[in-house]
Q: What sequence folds into this?
């Protein structure tokens, strides 16, 4: 009996230690989040001003803004979504509607998941070899394509997942009415999964708006306002990188401003995606 | 009319199929482009590339062991910190946390995953590194001075930036991945199993450690490897804080470099063909390491999926 008491006590002690450690672990995660967001708000808000959105990146020592970088980021992200989304949606549709259990689908799924988590800097090298080297120039086109390569796997994955959630009864009912398969897909399954597919695109935009590595040696960056897509173009992440590692305090301030802008964009997009997803469920 | 419908069906089918093939072509293209770009360096340095430490653009001799070492060491540091903590967070969220707090805490941890890596970079450089230098590195170096092994591993000067700082920031970045995957697989544990063990008088810890984790160990390992794949390829967060020094230092606090940091820092400065090519060869090596790690992760998670299907 005494032995049992000792054993019981030890088990309870181990359990208490475990619970404390678990709570500690959760706090650990939350503390970092607070630490990062706190610093971002503190340094980012003090960098906010109207000129941030109306002036272009300055030479060291003078005032300026991030207009050209914001413009470049928007243009290249839009381009990437326009190129990547159709390919992603079609590929996802193929996986979910045509080849669900086929061998090809298995391989495509496998490769897609590797592209999804693979290193984005390698994407930059790929586009450098594919576009920049033959064109003999860094360009906004190359940056757009690099981002599109990142968009595709995200959209493929969410599209497939969302289409798989559509009940088969819907497809069967439409087919029974005599609709050809492509009508069934476009008018019934796509419509039923629309909210989820839009979520996927939003998540893809959130993902690429902070991507830096694939832009460094494709779009390069540009300290003047350029609308020519065959020339190097600035983007928020590359400007942040360039300015943050420089020794100039003015540039650091601008980098923090850009960092806050990017984080705010990503958070807004993620929240929008989450709301859309919840709406679909209810 | 019927023929037109049939034609549109065929066209649509071919369209979706070619999009799926395009995904395969992307991977093929990446491998081909990296090989093509790395070819001059592969020819010139051969296998010696991965055993040499020299990285000298002036004499055009390049060896990749320092960045490869940096990539692996920072990832190991990140895994050592993030795996146990990520597991604990997942256990906390599934079993211990009061239901009303579950969602907010879960979302907050997921937010960590949503923050772009460049934000981790700029924060690491301006906020975390100075704090870490003053409040952790200096006391630790002082305390461990003269202790064998540990004194070397955590010795030298406190720079703030360095290999250990990079690993630590990486661990914060991959923490949410590990806890998210673990949470998902923990939810596949049938509640009958848990209820039965609680019914036998087991404590929460015993149910978790001896019932739930063994039940879904494949999934947990798969999730951890997925996170490892991310850590290996992470670029911006590491580039800011690793110090970019092409040497293998005995101390973890010393500046180092990683494959991705080397490429990010030097690619646009590389003026000669062989310099660019060596950087691309580093990219090729990184790609193969992550490819293997991610493939293993996929296979393990797939096995779990199949078990769930049954």
A:
């Amino acid at each position: 009996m005494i032995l049992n008491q000792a054993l019981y006590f030890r088990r309870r002690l181990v359990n208490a230690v475990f619970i404390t450690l678990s709570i500690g672990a959760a706090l650990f995660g939350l503390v970092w989040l607070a630490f990062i967001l706190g610093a971002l708000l503190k340094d980012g808000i003090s960098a906010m001003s109207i000129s941030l959105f109306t002036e272009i990146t300055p030479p060291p020592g003078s005032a300026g803004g991030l207009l050209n970088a914001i413009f470049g980021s928007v243009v290249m992200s839009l381009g990437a979504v326009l190129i990547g989304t159709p390919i992603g949606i079609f590929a996802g549709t193929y996986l979910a509607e045509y080849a669900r259990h086929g061998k090809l689908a298995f391989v495509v799924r496998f490769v897609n998941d590797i592209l999804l988590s693979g290193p984005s800097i390698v994407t930059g090298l790929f586009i450098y070899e594919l576009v920049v080297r033959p064109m003999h120039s860094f360009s906004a086109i190359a940056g757009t394509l690099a981002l599109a390569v990142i968009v595709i796997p995200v959209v493929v994955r969410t599209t497939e997942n969302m289409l798989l959630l559509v009940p088969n009864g819907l497809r069967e009912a439409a087919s029974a009415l005599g609709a050809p398969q492509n009508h069934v897909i476009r008018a019934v399954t796509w419509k039923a999964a629309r909210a989820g597919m839009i979520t996927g695109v939003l998540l893809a935009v959130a993902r690429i708006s902070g991507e830096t590595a694939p832009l460094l040696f494709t779009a390069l960056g540009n300290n003047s306002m350029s609308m020519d897509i065959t020339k190097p173009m600035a983007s928020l992440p590359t400007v942040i990188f360039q300015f943050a590692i420089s020794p100039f305090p003015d540039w650091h301030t601008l980098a923090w401003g850009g960092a806050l802008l990017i984080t705010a964009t990503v958070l807004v997009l993620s929240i929008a995606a989450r709301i859309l997803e919840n709406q679909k469920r209810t | 009319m019927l023929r037109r419908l049939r034609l549109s069906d065929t066209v649509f089918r071919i369209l979706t199929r070619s999009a799926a093939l395009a995904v395969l072509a992307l991977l093929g293209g990446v491998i081909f482009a990296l090989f093509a770009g790395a070819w001059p360096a592969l020819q010139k340095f051969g296998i010696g590339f991965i055993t040499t430490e020299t990285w000298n653009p002036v004499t055009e001799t390049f060896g990749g062991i320092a960045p490869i070492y940096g990539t692996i060491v920072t990832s190991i540091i990140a895994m050592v910190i993030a795996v146990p903590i990520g597991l604990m967070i997942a256990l906390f969220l599934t079993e211990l946390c009061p239901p009303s707090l579950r969602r907010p805490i879960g979302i907050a941890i997921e937010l960590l995953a949503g923050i772009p890596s460049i934000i981790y970079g700029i924060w690491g450089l301006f906020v975390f590194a100075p704090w870490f230098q003053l409040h952790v590195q200096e006391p630790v170096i002082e305390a461990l001075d003269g202790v064998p092994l540990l004194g070397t591993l955590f010795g030298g000067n406190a720079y703030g930036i360095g290999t250990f700082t990079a690993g630590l920031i990486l661990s914060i970045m991959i923490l949410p991945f590990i806890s998210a995957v673990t949470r998902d697989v923990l939810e596949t544990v049938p509640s009958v199993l848990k209820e039965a063990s609680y019914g036998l008088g087991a404590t929460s810890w015993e149910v978790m450690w001896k019932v739930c984790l063994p039940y879904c160990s494949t999934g947990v390992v798969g999730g951890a490897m997925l996170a490892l794949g991310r850590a290996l390829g992470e670029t911006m967060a590491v580039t800011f804080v690793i110090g970019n020094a092409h040497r293998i230092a005995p101390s973890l606090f010393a500046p180092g470099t990683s494959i991705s940091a080397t490429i990010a820092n030097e690619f646009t400065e590389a003026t000669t063909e062989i310099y660019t090519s060596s950087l691309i060869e580093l990219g090729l090596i990184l790609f193969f390491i992550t490819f293997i790690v991610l493939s293993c992760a996929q296979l393990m998670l797939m096995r779990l999926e199949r078990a769930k299907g049954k």
Notes: Chain B touches chain A through 88 residues (CB under 8 Å).
